[in-house]
Every structure is written in structure tokens, then in C-alpha cells.
Amino acid sequence: MSAAPGATELSPLARERLAYRRSRARRSTLVAFTSTLVFAVVVGVGIASSPGWPRVRETFFDPHAAWASLPAVLDGLWLNIRVLVVAEIGILVLGLVIAVLRTLRGPVFLPVRALATGYVDLFRGLPLLIALYLIGFGLPALRLTGVPTDTAVLGTVTLILVYSAYVAEVFRAGIESIHPSQRAAARSLGLNHRQSMRLVVLPQAVRRVLPPLLNDFVALQKDVGLISVLGAVDAIRAAQIESARTFNFTPYVVAALLFVLLAIPTGRVADAVAARAARRQGWS
């Protein structure tokens, strides 16, 4: 069969190298699959042969309890997903604003920079669980007009406040990684500070910090379950209710598996984005 017009014919040595690489790739895949399968079998046999496995299987891996609790846990997971989407949008917006405020230059902006720095220091050092208790129970206790009392809303606000401190530092690192010559070139084109930040600096900064932002998003997917401490009936709270009703811990396992399934796609996207960024910079 003749080669297509314009196609480059591979030399015998190049074809031999290509065949060798393909055989090595197939071998590596086979070895990895076999070793993983053997490890899983060894772990499974070790767990199944332990003296307490029948009791653990009945308490944590009961198929009937799992199927019975699945609808309630799924309803709770839908609340977690809604909180996750709203919190992620709020975190990105607030974190970017704080990062921009911390990068302002000039003595006139010192109070603004100090306020933004204090915000980051406070919420980055405050444990999320304590922040949930303080905001979720403290704000309703003030009985202020217009302050929401819904536990899901208060939990979402807390997540936004805490995670914005971390995301702000990620954005700030990206902004400060842009070489000053980029700003100078933008100003030489007639752009003011706001225009150069919006059109030149921020697009490059966001592209550079996209992998760590996605990792924070994966962490947020797990932490949305902590809103259950406020009484919100999310997946974890629903699993707790079902467990208390049936005296079985299988609903917790169901909730855990659903959270894992929710986090796996985002984790793979984060890995792919990080690998792509590394290839762009010539690290791999």
C-alpha cells in the first residue's frame, strides 16, 4: 500500500524504534495492571480472613442497608452539590478581589492592603469547623434583621469566607509571578493600571495558577460535607439519620463513596491541567 501524498515515509530504523516503544508501553501497562490486581487480591484476602470481618461486613457493608439509604443520601448530596457550586463562584470572586487589593502599590493603599492581609491571616488560620460553629450559631443568636438563619446558607457563607483566604494567596502568587516588564509594556501601550491588570496580568496569572485552584476545588468538594454540623440535611447528615434509624454504619460508606465519585473527575482534570502546564514550560 503506497503512502499518502505528502506523507513522510519512515525509515526502517524509525519503524523499529516505534515498534519498540509500543511494545514497552504494552509491557508497562500489563505489568502495572498485574501488580495492581495482585495487590488488591492480597489485601482483600487479608481483610476477609481477619477474625472480625463478618461483623464488619454486616455493620459497614450491608447491601440491603446501602440500597435502602441511597435515596436519602442522594437527596442530601444534591444539597452538597448546590452549596459547592455557589461557594466556588463566591470563592473565586472574593479571592480574586482580595488578591488584587493585596497587590496594590503606593502608600495611599496601605489601609486596604492591611485590611486584606488581616482577612487572609484570620480566615487562613481559623479552622473551618470552628468557623462553622461561630458563624452558623453566632450570627442567628444576634437576631439581626436581614441576617439569614438557614443552615445551608450560613454554611455556604462560611466556606466562602475561609476558602477565599487560601484562594486569594494562590491568585496573589500568580499575579506576582508576572514579570514587571509585562506591566511596563502594557503602560507603554497607553493602558492604565486597571486595564493592564484586566487585559495583561490577570489572564496570564489565572492560567499559571489553574492547577492549584483545581486542587483547592477538590478539597472544597469534601469540606462541603461539614455543613452537616449546623444541622443541614446533606449527604452526611442523611447518612447519620439513616444510621441512627437502622443501627448500621453502611449509610456512611454510601455517602463516602458518593463523595469519592464526585471528586474523582475533578482530580483527573486537575492532573491533566497540571501536566499540560508542565509540558508548556518544558518540565516534562
UniProtKB/TrEMBL annotation:
Keywords: Amino-acid transport, Cell membrane, Membrane, Transmembrane, Transmembrane helix, Transport. The chain crosses the membrane at residues 30-53, 77-101, 122-140, 152-171, 246-264. It is a multi-pass membrane protein. Belongs to the binding-protein-dependent transport system permease family. Its main location: membrane. It comes from Pseudonocardia alaniniphila. Residues 77-270 form the ABC transmembrane type-1 domain. This is Amino acid ABC transporter permease. It is found in: Cell membrane. InterPro entries: AA_ABC_transptr_permease_3TM, ArtM/GltK/GlnP/TcyL/YhdX-like, MetI-like, MetI-like_sf.
